[in-house]
Specification:
6 copies of one chain form a homohexamer. The first copy, chain A, has a domain of about 120 residues: Jelly Rolls (Sandwich), CATH 2.60.120.10. Chain A is of the alpha+beta class. Chain A contains 4 helices and 13 strands. The radius of gyration of chain A is 20 Å and the shape is globular. The longest helix of chain A is centred in the N-terminal third of the chain and has 17 residues. Chains in contact: A-B, A-C, A-E, A-F, B-C, B-D, B-F, C-D, C-E, D-E, D-F, E-F.
Chain lengths: ~220, ~220, ~220, ~220, ~220, ~220
């Protein structure tokens, strides 16, 4: 019997990955079933889909971002909403994020490998921008009610330059846009020292300082 | 020379249509050029693209929805933001809308043939819902800060059931989602009377009443 | 053992949904296996895929629409052919329908959220048309051997205006185009009465009449 | 002025090619404009698009295949319907073909590089089949009212084995599926003789015979 | 218990097929798990996916084509690299092949139904070409360091015309491009004799000879 | 007449951008026409498409990377091959690059927003790797004949750690994958100083040093 369980775990692992694409949907929706959601394996937590007749209105409504999330050292609190926390968007090709910035808080340079972002300033004054493939920066302060677009896969960033907290609502055209935050992706991931020294023109000592700063073990 | 102009108009007409798809982009962005935007023809107003070195930060920022638009008889004011008014999103596969609803105002049943919608209630209490392919309705009142998803191509609707005006920010995973508003698409478009009578079980007189109500000539 | 069965049901539920997309295929074909097809669960009937070496010629041929299906009150008999009944088209991005119309029979206004339709009149005279996003109707009678296209996601309709039964063959560029029939989606789904009254300009009594007419419990 | 014309021709040539893709549409439809259709250049005949307000019902209806086309030596008459002859399907991701086969007539082995085909036998008895990537053939005789699917990019073929003419309606999930007919693509295209001898195990003389048989200059 | 196993096998069969598409990825990667890889069934060998935290560097590196593979009678040795042998490319939309050709060796006319090929001559002189939809051949000898492109779905071929062995590296924009080799697909698959005689203008005896030459039972 | 020219330039600018997508092709190929290629405008150099009957074999063969390109200060010489230099790949969804690395030369951390890369080491020993969305690095030295895959949109890097020059052939599943080189995108693009100080934990002086180092005006 235990080998059978093992095989099932394998299936679960596979299924999770199979759900990893943003093609045109071929059904109305596909809601992962929270009842079965507590199936924990050494590898994955699985959220199988509901039968459509068991779908409820609440499956299509997300109520978990009425207030700001927890703030990091950078002064940013981000609530990323993907199918894991909002079942109703599964397979529909969209997701979103609420980001709150303390006064002076930043959203460091990062990019989303799989989506364009529409960034709507719900409250506050936010220096916002992105860099294109020719290393040109497009950035300025935008105010409440304004919207900036960050084209797919390009590095972008934000900073609250107002005198009050800021709130941003960002939406994506992928259910899992992914994210690479440059400082930690570069200096906190373990890329070869010599290569980083040459790439950034930094001394071994400087690279060491950067490494310690972005060491994932020392970060929350 | 005039035949030459004619040919150019033909080209313009074609170009407009050629821009009508949401594939993966193969460049960072493509901003229609507002300088040349005033090229009006009998057929089209054309907005050719800028050279990327002439793109400016403002091309990627939309400031035209800080306040509500003009309200219709239904008590709704919608500002649809597509590449015509926000050049920076051209070819990036997304667009968005600001909708304000007076107390009791409605967004009548409609659907977007080419996009899923993420609907974020920025202010107010809004009865929101959609109907799936099996004619089940998923609807309830959602409050400020809540989000509802309307799967691609399914009929949905909204009504301000609160005591104050409501504001909604909707985003789409197409640069041109399209929209068919059911009452006017069915009764204001000129579909054969007999067919409508049979489809809805209405008398010729009742159909006539509906026709006059949704006659496009008598609507703003 | 029973918990094991439960887990399997979960897997089945998930698998069904995972098959819900129309991307480019990455294999020749994928035929659901009718041998295992009788696996009925409380949630789904599952048709797992055959090994390609077990595929047979008959898997790629559909013989179930040589004659008309059962007629509804509207005078239409539709046989929708999707991967559930025709395994061979699974993952190939197409499906089709045979619709027969009695004299005077109608196919009421409806749309397919996920496909364009090519409608080929095999027999008879059929008033056919669709409505575009600007509420213009494109409709006229077409005869045997003529073809009309209904663009993706737009409302369309048909009525047999000839003196003999009519037969139509419609093909779709999705294996599951979906369908929303306007009268029942709007009046038979349970959308809030007040919203419908405002949207259509009907009295509460009139809405009540429409509701009873399209009550799913009283329909076949 | 003549250099200006040259530039326009260049534009036309480019535009034709730009229309060469099957992505999701981002508008309702895009009808090439037959009024301007007579623009003939040394390179192309251009059919620019209509303004949507000038589209007519007839643009969406194809009436040119009520009767069979002209028969070739192989006993087949095919009418391929693409946006050039049926403007309304432009950008909608579908096209179709009517093929008539004389008694004993064949549709030689061929494949469509860019589409799956749904083949509906409207009349007659047709031996139909395809070959998969492992060189297995799936073929048998299908009768009036039956449908066979030919998966995208796989070699398929048909032969009228009945005692009466046969008519087939094939639909594709691309507006331009393309076609390579094996005998002429291999022996009528000018592939190096030595390579063909080795590939098929034929003598130089036999290859010469095949070449003459499928020489494009001697074929209609 | 044994029926349970049967059901699991069915699931495995389905899972394999579910992985058969090249949409945009919605995760960084999805590596089939070699630990569980030895799950052999009567139908399939299954390679479930790893948890991303268990992915290793070696999963993303392929070392199995440092030397040529085994040569066939045609003088070609091809190592096709797809997710089965190189787990790291699973879901990423690419795959590749190393082909070595003896002096005079050929890669017979074939096509890939689901991919364009970029063919890079790493060593040697190779006559290379393809045929387009109008039966035009594009072919000539290319040398070390040159690259030829074979558009998706079009018949192409290669022959080593140099005095030394040749090595080619081909890459594809699908994780499973598929392949149909014309001689064996046509003459070794069991297509009806009469149809082949008519299609190629060959006698029954000649067809018989071709059949025996490409009989899959007599080939390795 | 001059205003006419202006309009044409506008058209050219638009056309360039219209070619910016990687959907499924709907024709065999589309070769920009080098004859007209010398049309230089203040904005663009335009390469309109050839009529398919004018395509030549050479259009589909690239001969410009038989030897290494020019080396930068980092010890890398990259020849990026896209439709501008290799017309034949236009619209086919692939492109490629030859990169040569001096002993100790590096390809600094960068990513391609629109493509996965298959990286084939043709010669030498190359430390190669990428970072995933969780900041894990996957890297080691790979040798001649080995292949590494860099998933779409993820930061990757290379360094020649051998004792001889190295040559790499990289292929992409987009005709224009784009590239952002981290050091210059971050420090050479003009992102706000305060934001960079906070993001990287650097002093204003250190940021100033980095800026000067990656100032685009001082780089080749």
């Amino acid at each position: 019997m235990s080998s059978n369980i093992t095989i099932l775990l394998v299936i679960f692992a596979l299924l999770c990955d199979v759900m990893a694409s943003d093609p045109d949907p071929i059904q109305d929706y596909c809601i992962p079933n929270p009842k079965f959601g507590a199936i924990r394996t050494p590898l994955h937590t699985i959220l199988p889909c509901k039968n459509s007749s068991e779908a409820t209105t609440d499956d299509f409504i997300f109520s978990g971002m009425k207030v700001a999330g927890n703030f990091s050292d950078m002064g940013i609190a981000a609530i990323s909403v993907n199918p894991t926390v909002f079942p109703g968007i599964n397979t529909l090709g969209m997701s979103f994020v609420r980001a709150d910035l303390k006064v002076g808080g930043i959203n460091p340079p990062h990019f989303h490998p799989r989506a364009t972002e529409i960034s709507h300033v719900v409250k506050g004054s936010v220096y916002s921008g992105f860099v294109d493939s020719t290393n040109r920066v497009f950035a300025r302060v935008i105010e409440q009610g304004e919207v900036m677009v960050f084209p797919r896969g390009l590095v972008h960033f934000q900073m609250n330059v107002g005198k009050k907290p800021a709130t941003i609502f960002g939406s994506f055209n992928s259910q899992n846009p992914g994210s690479q935050r440059i400082p930690s992706a570069i200096f906190g991931s373990g890329i070869n020292d010599e290569l980083l020294e040459k790439a950034f023109g930094l001394s071994p000592k400087q690279i060491g300082t950067m490494r310690r700063r972005f060491d994932p073990k020392s970060m929350s």
